[in-house]
Structure formats: structure tokens, C-alpha cells
Amino acid sequence: MNFWKTERGALLLLLGVSALILLLGLGARDLWGPETRWANITLQMLQSGDYFDPYLKGTPYYDKPLPSYWLITGFANLMGGLGPWSLRLSSVISAWLSIWLVYLIGEQLFRKGTGLIAGWMLATTFYFLFWARVATADVLTVCGVLAAVWWYWRGPDDTRLGRYTVFFLLLAATSLFKGLIGFVLPGLVLLPHLLSEQRYKRHLNLRLVLAVIIAGAFYAIPFVLSHLYGAPTYGESGLELVFRENVVRFFDPFDHMGPIYTYLIYLPAYTLPWAPCWVLGLWLAVRHWRDTPPNTRWLVWGLGLLFVFFTASGSRRSYYVLPLVPFAQLLAAWWVSERIARKGTVGRGWYRGFGIAAGVMLLVLGVVYPWTNGNGGVTRFAEDVQAQAVKSAPWNEWQMVMVEVDNKVPMYLQNHGTPFYYVAETQDFPRQGDSAAFMGWLEKTSGRTFDPKRTIIVAQSTKDDPTPLAYLGNDHQVITTQPDNGERLFHKRDGGSVAFVPNAAP
After folding, report:
1. β-bridge mates for residue 60, sequence order
2. Sign of the four-CA dihedral 470, 476, 477, 482
3. How confident is residue 142, by pLDDT bands cut at 50, 70 and 90?
4. How far is Cα 222 from Cα 175, in angstroms, rounded to an integer?
5. Across-strand partners of 55?
6. Which of 202, 221, 239, 321 minimizes the C-alpha distance to 272?
7. Whole-prediction pTM value?
């Protein structure tokens, strides 16, 4: 028998191809969107040695629980520094585990082969892969939710302390990556099953209470450490963050207020190219509800509760829908497996479809995206700055001053030297004058000493102000961001960065 047609071989093929899609070209793409904040915060942790007080460009920014940043700093220490790979690897591993968990859940709850189909669907879902290759906590949350659901379904009627403890520790760990949503989402997904046949009653016992206390103590550890070892002057509280981001934002949103139909658009979009399959699966399950298997009815109810929960929140963004994607693909896989069962054989079309989808994802994410970032952008900018600087002194001897700089720039300019100094746009630094005036203001404001011959000043340029601090160009080499391949192709660049490197001594 062909090994790849066995259950183990098919799983290994799925996991191998998934790893290739997730890893190919991972480090070649410039930092993008929200991950620039994660890069900046973790870089400042690494530079300062302060892992309890997160800063964004020198300003307190307690936006996510600390373990999200600790994961990245851990990979950075293991891999010799912070870079695109160490920054994104926690998301990549979480996505890979999510594909495996979807497979396990599908095989456990539905017809044999359903999990494999669901795994291939998730592994070739464009937006899931896109966010899997971006450094945020969203895919970590997806992985945590799936792990909790999988653990529950291994023994839904098991009342032992160990099973309860592992389950609630999974919820606590997930909540430490993004927020209390790690407790809420698995609860919503599993609620229909717990309510059916009054199953919840057998779980109302002291062992569950003890497990919750253990998980609560585990959840509190980072906040306690932050309180004990964080700087007294920091001014932000992790517990206040949890309340603001999870409770206040839900009932009284202060940002990202999308229309109520937001997820009616984004759930189908985020499950492409397999969205028609779960839509048809939903239609089939609802139309024949009484004859629909109990586990499928649970899946429909759980998916529906998740959808209602996210819609009920006034704060709506496209990628908030990511936790629904694996469950939608499970429903899609159930529909496909039912069709295959009725036909009695697996059509070559599905093999071909998954193969084509995987090939397209490899091409787009692993080749096209990296190419568009090549030959310019922030990577080339950092290389040009370093090349100019080392003409005068070793790279690690330079001090960096960041004047309201783009979040993505610091990671590429890190030199394992003195921590960067950040200047906010709102500060009264000299907009006109000369280098001496700027350096004088800098030393007076910071209380530090800067060597004018070893200080690189970096600022952010815009269409309205293409060369900020232009007067520094009188005695500095001026280096600007060059268009990358994608920008040359589409003729689009709204801004970039400009660096002022002191002229080399004659």
C-alpha cells in the first residue's frame, strides 16, 4: 500500500505541506500593519532588559498581556536576535498546530476523513495563512480555542480533576495572549453541548471549582510579576487593560466601530476559497435538522453563538472573525464528506482542488509577496544606513535617535548598542536651525549625553513633508527609503523614512 494513502501518511503530508506554506519566504516580507507594534515593543524589552513595562516608541503602551511579548523575546534570545523570523515564529507554530487540531477534532467527531478535509481547507485558506505569517496574538488565540475544544471532546463526560485542570489552564494560557476572550470563546462553542441533555449538571462539582482556582492563579502570575517588578513610575496596569480591552470595548466601544453586518461580509471572505462549502453545509444541516447528526448540530450552534457574540460587540474589525474560520471549515468538511459518502468514492477533483490551492498559496505568500518587498523598502533603507555608518565607526557604536519614526524601522536598525532614544512629534524639538541646536535640545530634554559624530537621527517622511529636519543635511549624509518592487510596479509610495548620518571625517 502507498504510504501516503494511509492515515498516518496523509496526516504527515498535510502537516508537511502546511509547514512549507507557512515558512516559505517568511523572513523576506517587510513588517506589516499591527505587527510593527509588536516588533517595536519587544525590541525595547530586549534593549532595556525590562520585560514588565511595555513601551511603544518610548511611550507606555500596555495593549496586550505580557506573555504575548515574552514569547517573541524568547524566540529572539534563542535565535540570536529579533528579526522577521523570531518575531513571527510563535504565530506560525500556532497556525501549524491549529491545522493539526482541526484535523483531530474533525476525525473525532465526524465521519472518517472529515478531519483531513478540514485540515486541508484550513491549510489553504488565504486569510488564515496571511495572519498566520503576521506577528499578532490572533492566531495564538485561535490555537488556544481549538486546543480547549479538542481537549473537551476527548472526554466530555469526564469529571476528574486532571481533565478540568488542563482544560482551564488552556483557557488561562489563551487569555494571557490576547485577553479574556480566551475564556469566552471556548465557553460559547461548547455551551450547546453542555446544555443538551442537561450535561452541565454533572460538571457542577468541587473539582471543577478547584480547577478554576488553579487556572485563575496561573492567569494572575504575569500581572503579579508586573506589579512587583515593574517600574513604579510606569503608570499602566495590566488588570485595567484587561477590563478596558475586554469589557469596556465590548459594551462601549471606543475604536474600530464597524457596521453590524461586518462579519456577514468578512466571514465568507476569510474562508475563501472554501466559503461555498460551509454555506452549503449550513443549508444542508438546517434543512434536514432532525436528521442532522448531533455533533454537526453542535457545530452549527457553536458557530452561530460565536457569530452572534462578535456581532454584538460594537468594536468590529475584519480579522476579529479569525476564531470562527476553523469551525466554518469543519462544517465545510462535513458537507464534503457527506457528498463523498453518498458517491461512495473520493473524486479526483478534490485532490486536484487542494493541490492547486496549496500551490497558489505557496506562490502568493512564499514568492510574490517577498518579491514585492525586494530591492527597496525598509530593508534596503536599513542596509543603506548601516553601509554609510560603518565608514566612520563599527555599527554597534552608533546611537539612534528616532523622531516619530515608523514603527517598523527600529527592528531593522538595531545594532545591539545603546538603547534607542525616541522623540515624539508633539515635543518641541527644533523644526529649523542647525545640528548643534538639535543636539543641544536633545541633551537638555533627555538628560543624556550624545556624541554628534556617533548619533544617527531617523525621522518619518510623508507626502506633505518629504524631508523632515532637512537642515541636518548640511553636515549629515541623507538617506531615504527607496521604492520596492511592488511600489515600482504600482507607482505607490505615500511616505517612508529619512536618516541623517554624520559625515565621515576627512
Report:
1. 55
2. negative
3. very high
4. 12
5. 60
6. 321
7. 0.91
